[in-house]
Amino acid sequence: MSNFLETHPSAGNDPAPASPPAIEARQLVKTYPGGVRALRGLDFTVEPGTVFGLLGPNGAGKSTTVKILTTLSRPDSGSASVAGIDVVERPDLVRRAIGCVAQRSGVDLEATGRENLTLQARVYGLRGRELGRRVNGLLDRFNLGEAADRITKTYSGGMRRKLDVALGLVHRPQVLFLDEPTTGLDPEARADMWSEITRLAHEEGITVLLTTHYLEEADRLARRLAIVDNGLVVAAGTPEELKSELRGDAIHVELGEPGPDGPVRAALDRLEGVHEVMLEGRTLRARVDRGATAVPLVLGALESRGLAVAAVTIARPSLDDVYLRYAGRAFHEADQAQSSNGGRR
Amino acid sequence: MTTAIAQSWHMTTRHLRFLSRQPWLISISLVQPVIWLLLFGQLFKRVVEIPGFAAGSYITFLTPGVVVMTAVFSGGWAGMGVISDIDRGVTDRFLVSPVRRGALTGGMLIYQGLVSIGQSTIIVALGLAAGARFPGGALGVVSLILVTMLVNLSFASLSIALSLLLRKEESVIAVVQFLALPLTFLGAGFMDARLMPGWIQAVAHYNPFNWAIEAGRRALGASPDWGFVLTRGGWLLALALVCWLLATMAFRSYQRSV
User: Which of A154, A87, A158, A99 is nearest to A124 (CA)?
Assistant: First the structure.
């Protein structure tokens, strides 16, 4: 046991060329009593020392995946390993290697922050002076020092979430699961959480599996991500790869004054690599193959028609666009549809 | 093994701390037994005059009954903590940690056992204050408290198992009441066994609640039949172990449904 506790993950600093994946999920299937098929053959792999995002609307199967990988639940079929250990065969070993912050907070609200952390540390076998040091270290690191001896009932949502993460880190896990860590947090607390997650992977080499239904969060934090819809991974890659698979960029031109619809569109439609031109008042939108080369052409065409341009912006496709393409529906619609069904898995 | 015991104790301290922060819970749990001892004891004072009633003082006769009854109902409430832990995500947090399932239930049961010992001691003291006399002395009282603790642990385990399966407070309370209330009256808690109808005597023979009362009462008597006390104690110990196993197994069933 003490050996394990002294093991520090080194994946971040010197990634071995053929290091085994930190998480591997193969064809995971899970049906809940009552016939709800949460997972229908889910596959993905996470490299050590990186932040991996599972992105999907509520009910897509993200939490079920986390429950299986953290040994809380068992798959009906398929296999998975975490830190190289099979989750079904050796759940006991997996539990020592992972930390988990569930979607619902796991804080004992009748105890103080320090008591929560101390019990968690004892559960993982820390004792004596080492335990005290670890608990104090985590309280400081998460700015909970002042509130440490207050009952957690009095904590704000952001403080409880920080304590949740601290509880997940008490035994220096190799892999940390964060299931929707920022849901329900105010913008400031969310920003805090984001910098903390980045720090974990970059400075401590912890592999982080993050589930989220915020596109922005996945885009910003995850080195690679998998888009999950209806129990399957529908697309995987780096955020940039996923976005570049969408053809081209969106350009957005603000005209000096409302232009005549017909001639403007006629001028632009003839240009190569410019599609889906739309004009609304002074705002002109189009999709182009390559923003950098299309902008001068578009500006030239507009100028030749005597139309003054006030502003131009080029936008790379967002994950929203990616989701739309792979799941066949807009992200926020899928999210709302699931939420109104009460589906939260 | 030592890990399991250490883990159980860590879990126990969590529950003890909760109680130490709301000490008024202790007085609430004593309201019922006080009413039973003082009001019921007064109301039925002259029951002992019925020919065939062995005891000379009803409060002496009644006290062990109230001790055991209180322990059964208090055990029945054990599952409430389980449900609030599930609802708050605390249970899931421990289930993905290296804590053994047996230590999770073990922690709750050690706490229950300690509470039961405390409660029984207070009720015995109240009984003495109200005029009960126990010729069996300290050894008798300790025996009563121990058999009472075993029946308390059995009920607490059942309540924990039910809570993990049903996960709704109302359902668990309904089932516990449905079990505990009839069991309380299908035994010699309030009436001498020889004066009970034949069918109740027959049922009482299989009623763990009654095993504890009969064993406790004999131990408190002037010349206890220790063979009888130990046999009933053994049955209760076996029952408590079976119920603990059930509670621990219920965690597996809970995990299948999450």
Answer: A99
Least confident of A151-160, A195-204, A262-271, B214-223: A262-271
Contact A113, B84 (CB under 8 A): no
Q: How far apart are CA B31 and CA B29, in angstroms?
A: 6
Domain check: are A235 and A272 in the same one?
A: no
**Residues 52-91, chain A: which have Cβ within 8 Å of B?**
67, 70-74
What is the residue range of A87's domain? 2-243
**Distance separating alpha carbons of residues A85 and A11, to the nearest angstrom:** 16
If you measure CA to CA, which chain B residue comes closest to A119?
B10
DSSP string, A277-330: EEEETTEEEEEES-HHHHHHHHHHHHHHTT--EEEEEEEPPPHHHHHHHHHSS-
pLDDT band at A345 (very low <50, low <70, confident <90, very high): very low
**Cβ neighbours of B89 in A, within 8 Å:** 102, 104-107
Average pLDDT over residues A262-280: 79
Q: Find the length of chain A.
A: 345
| Residues A230 and A310 both lie in one domain | no
Long-range contact list for A32-39, CB < 8 A, 24+ apart? A32/A345, A32/B257, A33/B256, A33/B257, A36/A345, A37/A231, A38/A64, A38/A231, A38/A345, A39/A64, A39/A65, A39/A68, A39/A75, A39/A78, A39/A231, A39/A232
Give yes or no for A161 touching B (CB within 8 A).
Answer: no
**What is the total count of domains within chain A?**
2
Minimum CA–CA partner of B13 in chain A: A119
| B256 touches A: beta carbon within 8 Å | yes
Are residues A151 and A57 part of one domain?
A: yes
Q: What is the pLDDT of residues A176-208, one digit of tens each?
A: 999 999 988 899 999 999 999 999 988 888 999
Residues A119 and A239 in one domain: yes
Q: Which residues contact B143 (CB under 8 A, 6 or more apart)?
A: B136, B215, B216, B219, B220, B224, B229, B233
Q: Are A123 and B14 within 8 A, CB to CB?
A: no
Q: What is the CATH number of the domain that holds A300?
A: 3.30.70.2470
C-beta separation of A106 from A120 below 8 A: no
A221: three-class secondary structure by DSSP:
helix
A181 and A91 in a common domain:
yes
Of B7, B96, B99, the CB nearest to A100: B96
Partner A contacted by B10 (CB < 8 A): yes
For residue B21, list chain A residues with Cβ-Cβ distance below 8 A. Answer: 110, 151
Best mutation target among B11, B87, B93 (most A Cβ atoms within 10 Å) is B93
Structure-token match 């034949």, residue found: B198
Q: What is the pTM of this model?
A: 0.82
Mean pLDDT of B205-230: 95
| Cβ contact, residue pair A95, B92, below 8 Å | no
